[in-house]
Amino acid sequence: MQHTIHQSLTGKKSAGHKSFAVLVDPDKVNPQRIDQLCRLSTDAAVDYILLGGSLVVSSHLDDVVRQLKHQTDIPVILFPGSPSQISPSADALLYLSLISGRNPELLIGQHVVSAPAVRKSGLEIIPTGYMLIDGGAPTTVSYISNSSPIPADKHEIAICTAMAGEMLGLKVIYMDAGSGARKAIPEEMIGAVSAHVSIPLIIGGGITDPEKAYRNCQAGADLIVVGNAIEKDPVLISEMSAAVHQVSVGERI
């Protein structure tokens, strides 16, 4: 099995290059919307498209992946909210383990159930330490996961959780304030975690403007993921991508 997406993430981190991903919820797009997102993302040199949601009540996940792959060369990475959100047409799968919570189903239980289908899919599997951070409001992911987020001011908990994930062999850390978050993850927490892990650090949730994306990258984020803000205003794709890619090599706040 090839590992091109993980190699891309680690290669960009090593080179100090920041990346930007558009998060697409299959429940909230139609063919026309997908065409628009692909056109804007291609023009803005978006690095990755993440696809998934906490629920995904529609049955056209594979159709959405196929249309994305047809319309753009940008890699499509599955960001599943459940084991059923698998499409072999995608490029890779973030195999999420909710290491910030204490729900055994999301630490290993669902992985056991989904393992045969995931292996059969032929997807590039990226073991991912998923950390839910308090964004100032209850979110869909906190409700669905039945898990309390890490308080935004408890940097030491986030640091130790990320360190444990890396030492357990996870390949990336994904810190998420969740869909509908009122506040993005503080730069201070991002910087603290980034200083203590060597694997790629993904940041998402509550990022509503290019300035926030830029500052998160300065703090140490390697990949910025934006979904809700783009659902409301797709034109933000260009501004967000430009802000992320402006962060120079080695620049830190």
Structural summary, described in words:
This protein has 253 residues and is of the alpha/beta class. The chain has one domain: Alpha-Beta Barrel (TIM Barrel). The protein contains ten helices and eight strands. It has an eight-stranded parallel β-barrel with strand order 1-2-3-4-5-6-7-8, surrounded by seven helices. Helix 6 runs parallel beside helix 7 and helix 7 runs parallel beside helix 8. The relative contact order is 0.16.
SSE diagram, text form:
Layout: H1 4-15, E1 19-24, H2 31-43, E2 48-51, H3 61-71, E3 76-78, E4 92-98, H4 104-121, E5 124-132, H5 140-145, H6 155-167, E6 172-176, H7 187-194, E7 201-204, H8 210-219, E8 223-226, H9 228-232, H10 236-246
Parallel strand pairs: 1-2, 1-8, 2-3, 3-4, 4-5, 5-6, 6-7, 7-8
Biggest pleated sheet? 8 strands, parallel, barrel
The CATH topology name reads TIM Barrel
Low-confidence stretches: none
Shape, per Cα inertia axes: globular
Key traits:
253 residues; alpha/beta; TIM Barrel; eight-stranded parallel β-barrel
Briefly say what this structure is.
The chain has helices at 4-15, 31-43, 61-71, 104-121, 140-145, 155-167, 187-194, 210-219, 228-232, 236-246, and strands spanning 19-24, 48-51, 76-78, 92-98, 124-132, 172-176, 201-204, 223-226. By secondary structure, it is an alpha/beta fold.
